[in-house]
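ugh ok so i messed up the first submission bc i forgot one of the chains. this is the corrected input, ALL of the components this time, i swear. 667 residues overall. if the numbers dont match what u have on ur side tell me asap before i send this to the collaborators (the ones from the other lab, u know who)
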Amino acid sequence: MIAYLMNLATIVAIFGILAATLNFIIGFAGIFSVAHAVFFGLGAYAGAQVALLLVPDALLACLVGAAIAGGLSLCLALPALRVRGEYFVAASLGLQMMAATLFAEVKPLTGGIGGLVGIPRPTLLGVQIGVLPVAVAALALILFLTARLQRGAFGRTLQSIRDAESAAEALGKNVAAAKTLAVAFACAGAGIAGALFALHLSFVNVESFTMDQSVLVMAMVIIGGTGTLWGPIIGAVILLSLPAGLAFLPFIPATEVGAVQQIIYGLAMTLLMIFRPAGLVGDLSKGRSTA
Amino acid sequence: MFGPLIARRALLGTALAAPFIRPSFAQGSDPYVIGTLFPMSGPNAEYGKLFTDGVQLAIDHMRAENLLRRPVRVQSEDSQALPQQAVIGMTKLINVDRASWVLTGFTSVSKAVAPVADRARTITVNGGAVGPDLERLSPYFWNVIPLAHLETRAIFPFLIRRDLKRVALIYVDDPFGDAILQLMQREFPAAGGTVAGVFSIPRAQQNFGAVAARVRQARPDAVYIASFGAQQPQIIKGLRDNGVRQPLISYSGINIGSVLSLPEAEGLIFTSQKFDFSAGDALTRRFAADFRARHGADPAIYNTNYYNGTRLFALLAAELERENKPVNGDTLRETLLRIREFDLVGGKASFDEHGSMTAAIQINEIRGGRMTPIAG
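and heres the new structure output, hopefully the right one now
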């Protein structure tokens, strides 16, 4: 049971990083991206290749994953500077679709749809370790940085851009630089999550980096509460542990196990959004219809 | 003041925990747990149902025969045919349910769970995915289905005999499709045939009008379809709707309800493991008869594979019980490598040193919505 819980905790920590970083651009900067799984994937492939070709050092894999995902996030940041709101959602959707196709086609780097197998177990300074402590440490670091940035001048700039971009620009804020930095920070975090995911599963393929994954991470942010520090983590815990918990219900027949679990899961999510529209940690006064 | 509140919380907690409480078993009669890691929801749930039906019939037969001293329990987990969900399910089966044997399917799921099986030394058996890259994933990962390259090779002499010498290949762009492409290009010309054209399709493609036009342009004698899942009936319909009248050829993965019930699939020729449900051995006849009685239809290949995957555990565990040895991944593997050949549905099946099964291949045709053996 402990091994199972540790595995679940590792996946929750990895998705906690993903949700916290997506929350940084959605909740604080108002950039609605549906392409977060792309940067998760870039980090995963980068981390996997480091482990396969060089050394399975978790720290090195995370650094390379963060550098590649953060660097290539300019692909997202550049359109982000030109369009807002729903137009940016459409632009990120295009990026997600293009990236998923590239992940499936660039076989020398990604292994195509077959993916990369046999990724060795992670080490730290030559000692074999589990992914959980590294993932928890990375999550803590990202939450700490998020809290610091949120409270500082950069965070206030982002929030002013989120609430009124033209007004922020009129007040002399460098909107383009702030948005680019926010996207780079969030995507580098997603890259770290990706590298840890690859080391944890020992296998990666494109099926883990599709639109569905981006939507799942966005659901974690919304259910937990956008613009809050702990909301996305709570969202990740709920969205990952609820289906895992439902697997323990002993009275579901084997042939119906998936359908029943999905119905209960969907119902719980719907009820949650009806009664806590601003998310579990969000401001209760927000999100409700006032009509 | 807090009394009633605490009592209410305790009552609520107990009520919420009740479904999770399992009966405890005495040590000597602890059941063997057979874990199933199939897609039970989502677009591939049709396969999960097929796989599970085979497992359940095998369990019933095993109990009726009193094959094992200890009882057997099936624990199902929904993989959704996705690697991440599969790894969560697999760790639960191994660490919480203490599964002695796990049945799985789908290439990406198999690749994701193989390292987990390897670390835990738990035998994991694939009966659904046929990608040749599933061989040698781990000493504890076995296949109870002949992998695709073995099946496809077997149809080449049949095609030449039928004068279907120019074959166009429509293949899905993944390791399975790539393996069929390489095999066709390497071995079909050596068998006396010609590859008239090769057409790669993405896994998510649903419209095949353009592919059909290009296939018609290539003027083949037959069209080989190497795809899987819900895409297969869409390809068949797309080809027929767009005027491709040549015989369609495929492999055992095409033998699913959504294809068999498709009028456009009439006459489709495909390979599978050799099964003679009416005149085969007693085990095969009993399997077919009981399956028809329970489901009102002939068993599909996948029903059979997962029946065999479950029965293989029973045969190995029974052997270990006879020898008073513990049943675990290592002893099961030792026994498999020692015995090698087993009586399963369809006849004798033999396993190589990597745990991959080889079996005789037959050629079938879809006639009246049913699989009809025609050669092999």
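quick check: Chain A touches chain B at residues 1-4, 7-8, 11, 101, 104-105, 112-115, 117-118, 201-205, 207-208, 243-244, 247-251, 254-259, 261-262 (CB under 8 Å). that seems consistent at least. Residues 146 and 152 of chain A are 10 Å apart (CA to CA).
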